[in-house]
Amino acid sequence: NAGVTQTPKFRVLKTGQSMTLLCAQDMNHEYMYWYRQDPGMGLRLIHYSVGEGTTAKGEVPDGYNVSRLKKQNFLLGLESAAPSQTSVYFCASSYRRGRPEAEAFFGQGTRLTVV
Amino acid sequence: GEDVEQSLFLSVREGDSSVINCTYTDSSSTYLYWYKQEPGAGLQLLTYIFSNMDMKQDQRLTVLLNKKDKHLSLRIADTQTGDSAIYFCADAQPGNQFYFGTGTSLTVIP
Hints:
The complex is a heterodimer.
Chain A: E1 4-7, E2 10-13, E3 19-25, E4 31-38, E5 42-49, E6 56-57, E7 64-67, E8 73-78, E9 87-94, E10 104-106, E11 110-114
Parallel strand pairs in A: 2-11
Antiparallel strand pairs in A: 1-3, 3-8, 4-5, 4-9, 5-6, 7-8, 9-10, 9-11
Chain B: E1 4-6, E2 9-13, E3 18-24, E4 31-37, E5 43-50, E6 55-58, E7 61-66, E8 71-76, E9 85-93, E10 97-100, E11 104-109
Parallel strand pairs in B: 2-11
Antiparallel strand pairs in B: 1-3, 3-8, 4-5, 4-9, 6-7, 7-8, 9-10, 9-11
């Protein structure tokens, strides 16, 4: 019962470096999300996907790109990291067709520090 | 977009009831959720309520929904130290977009 798995769990980047965060889910969920969590601001949606091959912008998409080449994976990329991107990043997935409730399941988070 | 608001902090004594409040702005919500986040962990679903319900009880948890006022609350009876965490309300819009509140940090004083 892996659920939603994020890698890596921690990362320190220098300003201008790039990296990719990987999210994998094994629940056959249609929807996947990337959020960032900052103190006093709750969770803010970066990008989301409603199915394989589709992505859409959320509330704070600038500086990030995503891809959903396979249904079970959702990748978040930072092309040129900035200190403002220091945050805890959470991936989530939801919605299995035929079920009315839409509970979102979360990964354990990735703590990213940009110096 | 949707605005979901919560107060940031709440302190209660062990054994008392806790009430965490949430307001939202969009009346097209389908489900409303309460999530719990323990230190260093992701969010875990506590309970949810369908938008056509007024109340849902689940052991020590009671969720009240006032659709007219767009107000959601979570009551935890007999609060324990293990209930100390951050609690998020979330609103699921049609199309499965989730909007989260800022989170309420609950501290339980022994």
